[in-house]
Amino acid sequence: MDSVCPDCGALIWYLERAEKSKGKCVLKVSICCKKGKITLPFMIEPPPLIRSLFNGAHPKSSTFLSNIRSYNNMFSFTSLGGKIDSGSGHGPPHFTISGQNYHRIGSLIPNSGQSPKFAQLYIYDTENEISNRLSHFSSLDSQNPIDSILAKEILNVMDDHNRLVQSFRMVRDYIQSEQAVPVSLRLFRNRQHDPRTYNMPQIDEVAALIVGDIGDGEDGRDIVVRERGGYLQRQNQSKIRADFLAGIEEAVSRGDIVASSIGARIVLPSSFTGGRRYMFNNCQDAMSVSKKFGYPDLFLTFTCNPKWPEIQRHMNKSRNYPIYRPDVTCRVFQIKLDQMMADFRKGHFFGRVVASMYTIEFQKRGLPHAHILLWLDSRDRLQSPESIDSVICAELPDKNLFPKLYSAAHVNIEFCNKSNCIKYLFKYINKGVDRVTATLQSRDDECIDEIQQYYDCRFLSPSESIWRIFAFKIHERHPAVIRLTFHEEGKQSIIFRDSSNLTSVLRHNKKKATMFLAWMEANKKYPQGRHLTYGQFPSLFTYDSDGHFWKPRKRGFAVGRLSYIPHSNRDLFYLRLLLNVQVGCTSYEDLKTVNGNIHDSYRDACGALKLLEDDREFIAAIVEVANLGSGVSIRKMFARLLMSNTMSDPLRVWENLFDVLVEGILYHRRRALNDPDLVISSEDLKQLCLLDIDNFLRENGKCLDDYKCMPKLLVPNNGRFNNILVENEYKYDLDEMNRLHVEHMSNLNSDQLDAYHQILQTVDNGVGSMFFVYGYGGTGKTYLWKTISYKLRSEGKIVLNVASSGIASILLPGGRTAHSQFGLPLSLSKESCCNIKLKSKKAELLSMTSLIIWDEAPMINKFAFEAFERTLRDVMGDIDKKNANLLFGGKTVVFGGDFRQILPVVPKGSRADIVNATINSSYLWRKCRVLTLSKNMRLQSSFDHIEKEKLASFAEWILGIGDGKIGTFDDGDMVVDIPLGILVSCETNPIGDIVNLIYPELLKNMFVPNFFEDRAILAPTLEIVEQINDYVLSLIPSSSKEYLSCDYVSKCDDDTLIDHRWITTEFLNEIKCSGLPNYRLVLKVGVPIMLLRNVDVSSGLCNGTRLIVTYLGSNVIGAQIVSGRNIGNVVFIPRMRLMPSDSNVSINFYRLQFPLCVCFAMSINKSQGQTLGHVGLFLPRSVFTHGQLYVAVSRVKTRSGLKILVTDDNERSKNSTVNVVYPEVFQKM
């Protein structure tokens, strides 16, 4: 310690000086005496006898000190109370006290038949007082007996000098003179000072004798000791109550003016440091910071080191140990923590820090440590393995080369990966004090003492005690989070005392503005805040809590956070949802106004904004389609809602919409039968409608029987088979299949013919085999699949065509995604199996299948193929046990793909993990026959010689990119120069430049047919894709329509890592991930969009299908398909209940939203499998995994259709970019 407090003389470190005195000559210190506000009196000089016994001057000093605990207990007024465990088990003896510890005091005189003890000894039978006191210690060791003479001398000192003893003697004298009158003793607290101050009492009288009954007239925490049968009683301070303003008005109107007759008592507040509400609110604040700045970037743990030189110097000087001086260790740790956080915010370590927070915890051994979260500026975020490695090193510094760094401090730093960390980090840094396990049971009418709960269940170490004594922060965050309160009209909470007059309370509070009401007034006064929601308001305004008004912010920034409301509190919950959306409100009516209509309730307003999940929305959607499309469209819409499992009660929707769903059926029947007077009963119309819906379901591999809640078909729609899956595979026209086969067969090249014959030979022989057809884009893999499928289907055999992606599946005849066809689990492991039960419809289909073709195999994890192989052996083994030992149960399975393309995504996986996840790393690969297609079918077209040379040159360049043979190595990266003619340079607006190239004269051409059909901009990340789409959308002058999602945590989520109350609605709204539409979807008519989920594969609506918006309704979106098999068809899409498939989002929640996104630009990964005419590749950051650059440049057929724009961090164009290729994946071929 290097400084002295000028007020109290305490030793301090200079860095502990008060904030306001920093930089000034005058030293002010707050940690010791609150800048001189607290003065401690000198210690009272002990009586001579006591002083001599302690300092060894008395002849009996050694005996006294040897029995000091016994002497102390002999004269105690109270006994110790608590939950005692004396240790009945084996092991060393121990004495454990747990729970809330307290002191107990008996009555003034003992009950009949009992001997006096503790304070009673000062009143009862004082003639034999010494013998009575000694009797309690008669069993002590005879070698150290209690000295009765010394005890008498100590008692005399107590009588002369101790005021409490004198008070109890006063009771003795009174009882001896007036035995008939009951008496009690009240021990007074100090009433002249605030009970929270540290000043010692300065009054003379500390007790009073009370004769007669004891009332409750006195306030304060006094102790009342009754004459008989009494125990220590806690006399509460003035009781505080709370009620709504409307409740007080009602009470006053009926004549109740006594405050204690209404309201509810206040429980442990959220401001109580370390309490459950305190930590819950801190976690909510953390969520608000994450909502504003995104996911945290770094998680650090900083631990106190008792060997720090500052601590060691003090210990050496005082000849002490850190374990006995938690005050020193805590103060040094606080200084270092403050300095480290200041360095972080100044950008000294990781770049610019926009937000931070930490929570202090205490180890069982006592030392404090801090858990810290940092949010970095977007310009300094760690977005590559190299940037992460630059700040995180999993090595200890060399002890000899870096001794200071080796021993300085334990600082652990970890990189945070998206929202997967939310469940752990925010719960971890806000988990509160150490607690013991407890079960609390109560009835609804029981009063819960939260303070009792808190103290009964907590563990308090010496370091934590010191930390709280010094008032150091347990939790700290930057920027500030403003907790925004709100209430229903007239239901603001009013705080008052039991003794208050309600008329005065009402008069004082009726016109007082709350924070929420002041926001409405501010919207009237300040136009610059009317575009902000209540939660956004603190970013530009500050709240004056004394004056109860908002004013424009002069400097700084704050994050607003709406108070948490449980879903059970319906009206407030709906009000909270509205406050997340509505802006510029000046009244409660404004909050309930949507599109100019004032709704009766908050719930109705939420429903109008589509913030709730309600089947009424789907009823309205089908009615909306009925006004726009045909009866077929209506029934297809209902079937799609059934398949997506979006409706809560499909039967209710069916019953409400029966007259709408049967529209057109009677008309078409009259035309088919040429009978304009045909009459069909209501029951028959119902059956025909159900039959139509069943047919739509069957086209997608489902049937009406799969939905038990729906009415049943009286005549089963079984066709020739009881299995709809098998029936669908036998619907092909054999003559048409034969014609197509002959047509395709004539165009096969030698590579394709060789593969064709080898595959069909194994099918015809029935021996079964595994093939992999390997070829780059343009070598005719899809053409080969079609030829083989037509051949086998012309013979009445079943071929199952599947692909790893939705886009690839719609290019195959009768194609499905592998996940939907085979029931692959979303989370794969080496033990996974498909969700296909023996003797099920899918099992029957597999057993009757002659050939299985699986396209785009390299992009899916090898565990999927191994799971399918195990399942197929089980299915076929159930038919014949010999099949259980055969590869794929004896079936022929053909895989296809290009290992130059993007490999399986392995969350948090390294390069080795990704390569190991590919199909050619599976144990199945050893039994696989590889068939290679090397001839580019595009060059066989009728181009002239010059055009063919251009195509060949471009194809060779693409292959060079895919094989990693083009470019030079630079610091371990393969850097590729972009050829002239493909390279694009930019001036000041790179996004605008690439948009103008790919979408020339956008406003003029956007309504030209097929303009968007074969054009797209590609980018490596979703963040860049969203920036481009937002930019292009802003260029279109037409009006937009905004659709908001309804987000909520899954009720079936049994994850116990986090309290789901911590996951607020607005936090879920901010989650963005692959495959999930955004919370806020903004669209305009004529804009290209993309489907993000499989909606209706039979109609060409699968994941990746591109469409053009034709209609923006309240409950449905109409669009025209521009890619796949059904180009030109107009479809209607409703909102659907979706769950994230991204493994990085481990919070299980639902999002009710249209499964769409704007698609002027798409990610490179999403483009895999699509063929386009004009592609703009925008690379403000380089590709980051194998095959991305290859996939991007191979989406086009010609060189003229590809444009690449590469920029650096300063948005200046470059002529080269990094290409990531893993050559080891080719070595396994």
Automatic annotation (TrEMBL):
Residues 225-374 form the Helitron helicase-like domain. One of its GO terms (molecular function) is 5'-3' DNA helicase activity. Keywords: ATP-binding, DNA damage, DNA recombination, DNA repair, Helicase, Hydrolase, Nucleotide-binding. It is an enzyme of class 5 (isomerase). It comes from the Eukaryota. It catalyses: ATP + H2O = ADP + phosphate + H(+). Its cofactor is Mg(2+). Residues 1066-1112 form the DNA helicase Pif1-like 2B domain. CDD domains: SF1_C_RecD. InterPro entries: DNA_helicase_pif1-like_DEAD, Helitron_helicase-like, P-loop_NTPase, Pif1-like_2B_dom. GO terms for biological process: DNA recombination; DNA repair; telomere maintenance. Belongs to the helicase family. This is ATP-dependent DNA helicase. It comes from Trifolium subterraneum (Subterranean clover).
